[in-house]
């Protein structure tokens, strides 16, 4: 289950090697060596340390073992009809040719209006909003458009996997700072030490995937001060900003004094509106930064599915009660899972935001997240994400497992039932034996 690099032809479909041992084909690999057989990886150097994403891997295993999938973070319920109808209407109305590279004007205007309502910052939809293929593309285009090879990027770990892949594509260097349990806040000394004269960007994600941490205003101010002192940019991934619990309050770092000019605020439709497959996201940034992001975006995707942008515009016109309902529904789902995991015996770290919860599974006698997630899928019938791959030092995440609760109540209850039935707490002496 460790990351598996795709090796073309390594499965049943592989063709036999030529009898004289000579290469069947001589394809020059990206790293300059010659592919002597189809077993040789064709992956370019920039991706040599990456495998298939853990989300794809776990979802495939979950399907194979018919496990309840609390792994990959996608809702198992549908988005709202008024949003879907708007997209369908756009198709009926013939809105099916390329959208403007920067986004359908109606959507860009809605994004600017929502941002102003949330943050008090007035932005020019034409110059400061760029619609992208999900937040993942916004992140990639931000790195590609704004970073040079060798630039350093400070990133909190555990880090969502696409961040480092986007940095690798841009040739940027990762400077990790670990968020540690129980509250997943950061050491201010470690963060200060991660900055240098080469720091180009600090990437933050609040509410944070996978820990559920919501950065406080004081933490954000500390980050802002460091960014200003080092003249660094801030990329702020805020895709879970509507999913907040127990009075947690989301602050966009762009709101802090002087910060808008050095910040790229990234968001999307998928999480809030349960439309992850639509892949509609956006980047909001002052004109010089937006211009750089657009340089990349125009050659990566150029533009985003036109009818879905019309649907997204309708979504963003949702009244405040819509967001209140989303929050109430997620609070209920979160409570079902938290209570269940605690009953089973996990040491649970309560999330303040997002739709994920991290838990320590060592009470069950395991001490490796990959082995534990395999056990969960195969023997318990529940899939969850082993997070050690989200750290530069995997040992930091080795005792943790991430569950997603963007699932119907019935699915969450079934997962809890299976966990209760099949997971057994270890006696203290047994635990000692495995540690
Ligand atoms: N954002 C989702 C998660 O964290 C995964 C999306 C994906 O599969 N790339 O689970």
UniProtKB/TrEMBL annotation:
Residue ranges of the region described as Disordered: 1-38
Keywords recorded for this protein, A-Z: Aminotransferase, Pyridoxal phosphate, Transferase
Domain of life: Eukaryota
Annotated Aminotransferase class I/classII large domain residues: 67-419
Cofactor(s), by name: pyridoxal 5'-phosphate
SUPFAM superfamilies linked to this entry: PLP-dependent transferases (SSF53383)
Record CDD domains: AAT_like
GO CC field: cytoplasm
UniProt xrefs under Pfam families: Aminotran_1_2
Similarity comment: family membership: Belongs to the class-I pyridoxal-phosphate-dependent aminotransferase family.
Protein name: Pyridoxal phosphate-dependent transferase
């Amino acid at each position: 289950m460790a990351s598996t690099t795709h090796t073309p032809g390594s499965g049943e479909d592989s063709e036999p090697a030529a009898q004289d041992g000579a290469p069947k084909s001589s394809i020059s690999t990206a790293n300059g060596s010659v592919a002597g057989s189809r077993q040789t990886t064709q992956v370019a150097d920039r991706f040599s340390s990456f495998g298939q994403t853990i989300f794809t891997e776990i979802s495939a295993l979950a399907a194979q073992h018919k496990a309840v999938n609390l792994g990959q973070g996608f809702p198992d319920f549908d988005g709202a009809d008024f949003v879907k109808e708007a997209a369908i209407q756009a198709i009926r109305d013939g809105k099916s040719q390329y959208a403007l590279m920067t986004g359908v004007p109606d959507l860009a205007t809605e994004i600017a209006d929502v941002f102003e309502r949330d943050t008090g910052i007035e932005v020019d939809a034409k110059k400061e909003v760029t619609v992208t293929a999900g937040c993942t593309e916004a992140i990639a285009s931000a790195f590609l458009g704004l970073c040079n090879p060798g630039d350093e990027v400070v990133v909190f770990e555990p880090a969502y996997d696409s961040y480092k892949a986007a940095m690798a594509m841009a040739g940027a260097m990762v400077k990790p700072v670990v968020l540690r349990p129980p509250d997943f806040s950061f050491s201010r000394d470690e963060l200060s030490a991660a900055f240098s004269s080469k720091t180009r960007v600090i990437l933050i994600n609040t509410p944070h995937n996978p820990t559920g941490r919501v950065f406080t205003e004081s933490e954000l101010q500390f980050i802002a001060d460091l960014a200003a002192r080092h003249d660094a940019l801030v990329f702020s991934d805020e895709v879970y900003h509507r999913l907040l619990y127990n009075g947690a309050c989301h602050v966009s770092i762009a709101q802090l004094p002087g910060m808008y000019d050095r910040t790229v605020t990234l968001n999307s439709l998928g999480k809030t509106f349960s439309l992850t497959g639509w892949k509609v996201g956006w980047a909001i940034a002052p004109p010089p930064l937006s211009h750089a992001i657009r340089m990349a975006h125009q050659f990566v995707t150029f533009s985003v599915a036109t009818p879905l942008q019309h649907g997204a515009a309708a979504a963003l016109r949702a009244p405040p009660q819509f967001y209140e309902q989303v929050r109430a529904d997620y609070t209920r789902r979160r409570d079902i899972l938290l209570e269940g995991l605690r009953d089973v015996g996990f040491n649970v770290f309560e999330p303040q935001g997002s739709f994920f919860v991290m838990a320590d599974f060592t009470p069950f006698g395991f001490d490796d997240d990959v082995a534990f997630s395999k056990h969960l899928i195969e023997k318990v019938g529940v899939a969850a994400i082993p997070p050690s791959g989200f750290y530069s030092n995997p040992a930091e995440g080795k005792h943790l497992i991430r569950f997603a609760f963007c699932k119907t109540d019935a699915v969450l209850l079934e997962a809890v039932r299976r966990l209760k039935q099949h997971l057994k707490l270890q006696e203290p002496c047994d635990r000692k034996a495995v540690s």
